[in-house]
């Protein structure tokens, strides 16, 4: 605990970009939840643009507006 899933359009992150993302997300989660680094797991899940609405937007954003802590601007 905690586990973070980042769903995103496919992107070719360099190893350095991925490492920086993981470092920053991990640090933010540690700070917010008061956990050790080893307690944090992160999953990067690419979602094709043509599948975004059906797989992400409708079920996880539009249908859960009451649970979102940050809403997208689109």
From TrEMBL:
Coiled coil: none
Domain 4-oxalocrotonate tautomerase-like: 2-52
Keywords of this entry: Isomerase
Pfam families named in the record: Tautomerase (PF01361)
Origin superkingdom: Bacteria
Record InterPro entries: 4-OT-like_dom, Tautomerase/MIF_sf
Classification via SUPFAM superfamilies: Tautomerase/MIF (SSF55331)
Protein's name according to its UniProt entry: 4-oxalocrotonate tautomerase-like domain-containing protein
Protein source organism: Actinacidiphila epipremni
Upper lineage: Bacteria, Bacillati, Actinomycetota, Actinomycetes, Kitasatosporales
């Amino acid at each position: 605990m905690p586990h973070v899933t980042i769903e995103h359009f496919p992107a070719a992150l360099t190893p350095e970009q991925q490492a920086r993302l993981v470092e920053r997300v991990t640090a933010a989660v540690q700070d917010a939840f008061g956990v050790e680094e080893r307690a944090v797991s992160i999953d990067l899940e690419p979602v094709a643009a043509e599948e975004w609405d059906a797989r992400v937007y409708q079920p996880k954003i539009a249908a859960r507006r009451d649970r979102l802590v940050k809403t997208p601007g689109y």
